[in-house]
Every structure is written in C-alpha cells, then in structure tokens.
Amino acid sequence: MARVSVSTETGELPPRYIIGVLCEIWRERGVDVHVGREFAPDAELCILHHDRTRLDPEELPVAPSGAVVLNARVLDISKRSYSELRVLPGDGWDGPVIVKSDLNAFGLPEAKDGMSLLARGHRRLANKSWKLARRLPKKTYPVLKSAAEVPGWVWRRDDLLVERFMPEREGEFYCQRGWLFFGSQGYGYRLYSTDPMVKTGTTVKHEYLDEVPPELQAHRERLGFDFGKFDYVMHDGKAILLDANKTATFRGDPRSPRIMRLAGALQDMLP
Predict the structure, then answer these.
(1) Residues β-bridged to residue 76
(2) What 3-state class would DSSP assign to 175?
(3) Distance between CA atoms of 253 and 257, rounded to whole angstroms?
(4) Which residues pair with 35 in a beta bridge?
(5) Is the four-CA dihedral 218, 223, 224, 227 of positive or negative sign?
C-alpha cells in the first residue's frame, strides 16, 4: 500500500483541516499516512501543508526521489498575486471598497509567530476603532462607502490592500461561493448570509453547486494548486476570485459523500 507523507510547520495536523479529515479516511482504507515536519524517506506521495501565505523554497523539506509533491508550486497566495478588484489611489473607482489583509486568513497564521503584549493591545483597540489603532479588526474586513474614506496609512502598507466591494446579492442575502477540490475531485457550494462578511459563522442557509466556472479552473492552473479552496462571487456571469486557500479548514460531516469523493481522488495522484 502506498505511503503518503504530509509536511506541516509544526509536525502536527489538527483535524480542523480538510487534509486532516482526508488523512483519517485514507488510514481507514489502509493507506500508511505519515505526518511530520520532514517528508518520510520512503513516501510515494508528499503533501506540502504549511499554513503560511508565502513560503521560501529554500526552507521547505526535500521530498524523496521519485515522489509526487502536491502543491509544491503554491508558494505565494497573497491576495495581490490574484486580486481582480484591487483599487489604487486615483484610479477612478468611486463605489464602495473593502480593506483587506494581503495575507491569507486575516494574517492570523503569521501573527501567531510572536504577538507581543503591545500588539494584543492594539488588536483590542482595533475591534473598537480600527482607524485609530491603525490595525484591522479581528477576523473581519472594514467596508467603506468610497476610496476617499480609506485612511492614508492603509495605502502605505504593503500588508494591506483595498478592493472594490462587489458582493453577490440575492434578495436580502449576501452570497459567497466556494470550490473545494483535491486532485480530480471537488465540489462547489453557495453560502447565504444577512451579513456582508459571508462566513460559515454568519451563514443562514447553503446549497451545493455542480458547475465549476472556467475562470476558477484557469486560476487553479496559473497558481499551481493540486488541492485547496477558492472563494468567489459571480457578476454578469463571470466568477471573481476573492480568496485562494491551500490549507483549508472544514466544518460538516467528515464522511459525507462529497468528502469521500475527495478522498477517492488519492489513487489518481499516486506515481
């Protein structure tokens, strides 16, 4: 039976990650799964699962000769690398804007590397007045009526970016779509929320989707994703990528037919 090796920064793989869920299914099916900082020397399939926005290839583990390495090309998922909605000062956009972290997952993985007491204090202040704290509030992005309301310090920060705020709407709901994929298998979904920040915690209903827009397929190929999750919205029949995540987390039934299909794609990935 094939041996699969997963490399993480800590050498551990919490079950909240979709890859953690898939690993448990593979083990149940008799696959020898190794998790650690380094790849197992006898691995046939290696999975790079480092929860950081940018990776230095010089610091990554070396895979054994002949092994296939998944997501080996996904070294930069900063929003600037794929954003189609970015706003720059004086570019003529006069509609609402949203201020985001350029880093994945609100920059929280990088923040955990060492947050000082002063930084924690700034975060608490940001939740009350982010403009005064010069820091985005925790786990949300401010929406402003126009680019004129964006503070000057935001434009000067390389770790932030401003985008056109173009939510997908259906009646009273804000909608966000997602595509979760592993190899040849994947599934889509659509979340409905009364909150402009559509997240799992603000969702009031959801539905599953069968079609994957060609724009997302093109992004996947360009960014080099073997597995991951893309968040997007639809406007005028076109998919607009909002977020590309290579270490997606998971909530739901870990043995649903959709997840089992993802797990089944492992055989197609083996050398």
Answers:
(1) 54
(2) strand
(3) 9
(4) 6
(5) negative
| DSSP structure string for 204-267 | EEEEEE----HHHHHHHHHHT-SEEEEEEEEETTEEEEEEEESS-B--S-TTSHHHHHHHHTHH
Q: What is the pLDDT of residues 177-217, one digit of tens each?
A: 999 999 999 999 999 999 988 877 789 999 999 899 999 99
Which of 23, 53, 54, 26 lies closest to 36 in space, CA to CA? 23
* End-to-end alpha carbon distance in the chain: 12
pLDDT tens for each residue of 80-113: 999 999 999 989 999 999 999 999 866 765 665 5
Rounded CA separation 163/140 (Å): 14
CA distances 181 to 27, 71, 80, 174, 229, Å, are 20, 12, 22, 24, 6
| Angle in degrees, CA 32, 33, 35, rounded to 5 | 150
- If we measure between CA atoms, which residue out of 7, 69, 6, 72 comes closest to residue 224? 72
Pairing of β 86-87 and β 227-235: unpaired
Mark residue 158 as left, alpha or beta (left: phi above 0; alpha: psi -120 to 50; beta: remaining). Answer: alpha
Determine how β-strand 143-144 pairs with β-strand 173-182.
unpaired
Contact by Cβ (8 Å): 79, 161:
yes
Contact of 215 with 188, CB cutoff 8 Å? no
Question: Which residues share a beta bridge with 234?
Answer: 239
Is residue 70 within 8 A of residue 265, CB to CB? The reply is no
